[in-house]
Amino acid sequence: MKKTYDVREIMNFLPHRYPFILVDRVIELLPGEKIVALKNVTINEPFFQGHFPGIPIMPGVLIIEAMGQAGGVLSFASLPEEKQGSIIYFMGMDKVKFRKPVIPGDQLIFEVKVLKQRAKAVKMAGIATVEDNLVAEAELMATIGEKNE
């Protein structure tokens, strides 16, 4: 089933809040398979004050964090009903590569796919693009914590 979510609905999946919620919209969500999400990069992001003055570039670690948050939404939406309400923890990343800088005005599109899913862990592959140009890629791992009652 294809689903879309705005940032208010995304906050039902993720514990993150401003200024650390880095996903603005879910364009497509196929639980257990993949997610396509976006982040609008704006000059008023707090990290641009120091990264770098006069040459604003989005920190690569925040691009991967945003990719991880998209993967978190996918993981949460893929949980069986009895595990709904569990918290998802980002636990690792491999094969991280940064290809091009991301600057204010860019729209980052994340596509994250499930590679393996087990009862307590999930491995995903993600890419980030701007105008169909690859800017970053990574394999991400997450663990499924206890149900948050």
Give me some keywords for this one.
single chain, 149 residues, alpha+beta, Thiol Ester Dehydrase, Chain A, 2 helices
Task: Report on the architecture of this protein.
There is one protein chain. The protein is of the alpha+beta class and 149 residues long. It has one domain: Thiol Ester Dehydrase, Chain A (Roll), CATH 3.10.129. Helix content is 15%, strand content 43%. The chain contains two helices and seven strands. The protein has helices at 7-10, 60-78, and strands at residues 5-6, 25-30, 34-40, 86-98, 107-117, 121-130, 133-147. Strands 1-2-3-5-6-7-4 form a seven-stranded antiparallel sheet. The longest helix has 19 residues, at 60-78. The two termini are 27 Å apart.
The helix-and-strand class reads alpha+beta
Note the run of SSEs as H and E. EHEEHEEEE
CATH architecture: Roll
Strand content: 35-45%
Describe the sheet with the most strands.
7 strands, antiparallel
- Tell the overall outline: globular
The CATH topology label is Thiol Ester Dehydrase, Chain A
| Name of the CATH class | Alpha Beta
What is the overall number of helices?
A: 2
Q: For the terminal residues, how far apart are their CA atoms?
A: 27 Å
Rounded mean pLDDT is 93
Please name the fourth-level CATH homologous superfamily.
Hotdog Thioesterase
Secondary structure tally: strands: 7
Proportion in helices: 10-25%
Q: What count of domains describes the coordinates?
A: 1
Instruction: Describe the strand arrangement of the main beta sheet, using strand numbers.
Output: 1-2-3-5-6-7-4
Rg over CA atoms, rounded to whole Å, is 15 Å
Low-confidence stretches: none
